[in-house]
Design a protein that fits this description.
mainly alpha, 4% strand, two-stranded antiparallel ribbon, 4 strands, two-stranded antiparallel sheet
Length: 335
């Protein structure tokens, strides 16, 4: 059932997204998880405590953050399994809330639209909605690069990884992944406030994103075969050569693949909260500056790669159904 839920969740979310009226009415799983994380942060992360105590409390907080959504998801999964096949449809709708295919494409496309219609000022405003770096430090090429990097990284974190963990652990696995990823984004920072308390969340997020980040890079390489103007060869070579240069053990894989496919240089030094983070460049763009047209080309690669992901889960679902029928048939014959 988990593989089928992952496949159907991808299909539902790609078609419908998460409706604004539903968000306005009840919020979103990420906002619910965010409230839990904020509560634990306020209660357990005290500046007067030692780093060792804050690290221990960070582990305790992470366990709560994982267990609460994970157990709720598991309970729903078991309940809906008992309602099969109607429960499968409901589970797919619930699982779709853990994905972000439609919204990711929309937000990145807004950056390209803003650059083309309003120039740098509107481009900075649009990109500030999807990245954490200082927008006022970005020129037009920097805005375009930031949008492309966000598209590549969030394809992994926001789509491939949750689909992977839904496929492995059903609604419980998907909810626990989303909780861990949200915790990393909220408290997994190397700042005086969170370096100790958020250490466990950051390291755990790195671990659980390992398989999805590699799969995402491969999907982008394969997509480059199908998108005119993209280079699958460079996507593969740059990913193999440059992915490990990134300061993140996971983000480099999809970003390097995208850089190679587009013929750009991505990553490099970036400014967050007034502090410059040094990072190696990935890709072979040389002096060529990224443009809004590169954002649109990246979106083409993303959409094709997303279809490939959907196709992969469709194949896995077909295999599961076939094996289930085969095993059921053997069981009936034995009786």
């Amino acid at each position: 059932m988990s593989i089928l839920i992952a496949f159907l969740s991808l299909a539902v979310e790609r078609a419908l997204g998460y409706p604004d009226w539903l968000f306005n009415a009840i919020g979103h799983p990420v906002t619910w998880i965010g409230r839990l994380i904020s509560f634990l942060d306020r209660r357990l992360n005290r500046a007067t405590d030692s780093d060792e105590l804050r690290r221990r409390r960070g582990v305790q907080a992470l366990l709560v953050i994982l267990l609460v959504p994970g157990l709720i998801g598991l309970a729903l999964h078991v309940l809906l399994w008992m309602m099969f096949p109607t429960g499968l449809v409901i589970a797919a709708i619930l699982g779709s809330s853990l994905l972000s295919q439609k919204s990711l494409a929309e937000h990145v496309e807004e950056v390209a639209d803003a650059l083309e219609t309003g120039g740098l000022t509107l481009g900075r405003i649009a990109v500030s909605r999807i990245v954490g770096r200082d927008p006022e430090k970005l020129d037009k090429a920097g805005v375009a690069r930031a949008a492309i990097e966000s598209l590549a990284e969030n394809f992994s974190d926001g789509i491939v990884a949750p689909a992977f963990w839904i496929g492995i652990g059903g609604l419980g696995g998907g909810a626990a992944y989303k909780a861990a990823n949200t915790a990393d984004s909220m408290i997994g920072h190397k700042t005086p406030q969170y370096e100790a308390f958020g250490r466990a969340a950051a390291r755990f997020d790195d671990l659980i994103n390992l398989p999805a980040s590699r799969l995402t890079g491969l999907l982008i390489v394969l997509a480059a075969f199908l998108v005119p103007g993209a280079s699958p060869r460079k996507a593969w070579l740059v990913m193999r050569r440059d992915a490990r240069k990134h300061r993140s053990p996971n983000a480099g894989w999809p970003e390097a693949a995208m850089a190679g496919a587009l013929g750009l240089s991505l990553a490099g030094p970036r400014s967050y909260g007034g502090e410059v983070v040094e990072d190696a460049f990935m890709g072979e763009g040389g002096r060529r500056e990224a443009e809004s047209t590169d954002i649109r080309q990246a979106l083409k690669l993303y959409r094709v790669a997303d279809w490939l992901l959907l196709g992969l889960f469709a194949i896995l679902s077909a295999i599961v159904i076939y094996l289930t029928i085969l095993i059921s048939g053997h069981g009936a014959s034995a009786l």
